[in-house]
Amino acid sequence: MAEFPAVVHLHLGAAPVLLVAPHAVAPLEPARGYVADNPQTQAAFADHVAEWHDVGSAELIAAAAPELEAPALCNALPRGLLDLNRGWCGRPEAKETLFGKGAVDATVAAWLAPGARETLQQRHREAHDAVRRASAGKRGLLELHSYGELGSTYDRLNGGRPVRRPRTALVDATPWASAFPVGLARLLPGDLRGTPWPLHRAVADALAAVDLAPGPHPYPAQGPWTLSMRFVADRWFQWLGFTGRLPAATAARLSDLAWTDEQHPDLDLALDGQAVAGLEGARDVAAVTLAWSADASELGARFLRETGTFGTTIELRLDLEPLAEVAGRAVAAGVRAFLSADG
Questions:
Q1: Any idea where the domains of the chain sit in the sequence?
Q2: Cα 229 from chain centroid (whole Å)
Q3: Do 76 and 15 touch, CB atoms closer than 8 A?
Q4: Residue 111 main-chain phi, psi, to 5 deg
Q5: What does the alpha-carbon distance between residue 311 and residue 141 come to, in Å, rounded to a whole number?
Q6: Burial class (CB in 10 A: 0-12, 13-18, 19+), 150
Q7: Residue 119 burial (CB < 10 Å; 0-12/13-18/19+)?
Q8: For position 28, what pLDDT does the model report?
Q9: In the predicted structure, residue 2 carries a pLDDT above the cut 60
Q10: Order of strands across the sheet with 17-21?
Q11: Does residue 210 contact residue 60 with C-beta atoms inside 8 Å?
């Protein structure tokens, strides 16, 4: 378990957007030390890691970042070992799913070497902190991914039928875990989207111009805690504090939890009526976000309008890896057009 950076810095830049490829192809050898050192486990682990790379996403970000003059990061460890686009613990499920799993899936958890879980948790924290610091002062966070042509690995391994996906897709940032939220998700409007329509249209038009027009994405409208979702949630809590809807100390703590522990037990205690130091005023926000009313939706729209915050994900189909550079330049052109028009 050799020490090396938690993320890889691919490009420096002053643009008001951070680009992240959290599932890019990463080397296997540094990851081997985290699992049991026997031939059978190591072989199975190598196969598992190979299933989970977002092939082409590194090329996407490498093409987009210089065009935008934007900072860009990617994962240092393979997604098949440590998924930066999930919370550490995930959500309790009878059977693990793609959207409920934690940063280390159940298969890999059974293979871990002694002490590896604790080390991986620390690396997960360090990686999220690096993304948070890199996104400071930015208006937006853009994730670049690739997805399976016929469905996800979970779909295939669990007997699902193939459904061919669009050549590209834009996925809204939706920072909560289900229609019945827990923890930090209870404090977010249920329809908060990080992808304003002008951004969606500009990127879609740029992709269509190179024969990579996006189609409907295959994911739930309410998804897991991805990096773009964390970014939007962080900015939401900052805005609630800035506008006096939350005490400054509470807003700061909630912003921290958006990056560190979205299911911290203090959250549900406070929102269920117990006095928890540092979370004063949180229950008042939940009274708005959980009410059967349009007020939360209106408040979320106002937040996006006043701050200009955006966070979204762009997917390129895996079989189109040879077009990743073309797609990356198109994404950059679309984002640049959006930023120029938006002032």
A1: 7-177+192-227+313-342
A2: 6
A3: no
A4: -100, -10
A5: 5
A6: middle
A7: middle
A8: 95
A9: no
A10: 7-11, 72-75, 17-21, 140-147, 310-317, 168-172
A11: no
Rounded-to-integer distance, Cα 235 and Cα 86, Å: 19
pLDDT value at residue 224: 78
Separation CA 217–CA 165 (nearest Å): 8
Structure tokens at 315: 């997917």
CA dist list (Å): 175 to 30, 234, 249, 303: 31, 10, 21, 14
Q: Fill in the amino acid letter for 80.
A: G
From CA 327, how far away is CA 236, in angstroms rounded? Answer: 30
Tell if the pTM clears 0.90, that is, is over it: yes
**What is the CATH code for 7-177+192-227+313-342?**
3.40.630.40
User: What value does the CA radius of gyration of the chain take, rounded to a whole number of Å?
Assistant: 20
Residue with tokens 């810095």: 9
**Do the Cβ atoms of 331 and 144 come closer than 8 Å?**
yes
Residue in the block written with tokens 């299933």: 51
Cβ(85)–Cβ(123) below 8 Å? no
Report the DSSP beta bridge partners of residue 35. 112
Q: What is the pLDDT of residue 342?
A: 73
User: What is the Cα–Cα distance from 9 to 328, expressed in whole angstroms?
Assistant: 17
Structure tokens at 300: 């979320």
Question: Locate tokens 């729209």: which residue?
Answer: 301
What is the CA angle 140-144-148, rounded to 5?
A: 145
What is the pLDDT, as a whole number, of residue 93? 64
Strands (E), 184-338: 310-317
Cα 302 from Cα 289, distance rounded (Å)? 14
The reported pLDDT for the residue numbered 89 is 83
Question: Cβ(76)–Cβ(95) under 8 Å?
Answer: no
Rounded to an integer, what is the distance from CA 144 to the centroid of its chain? 10
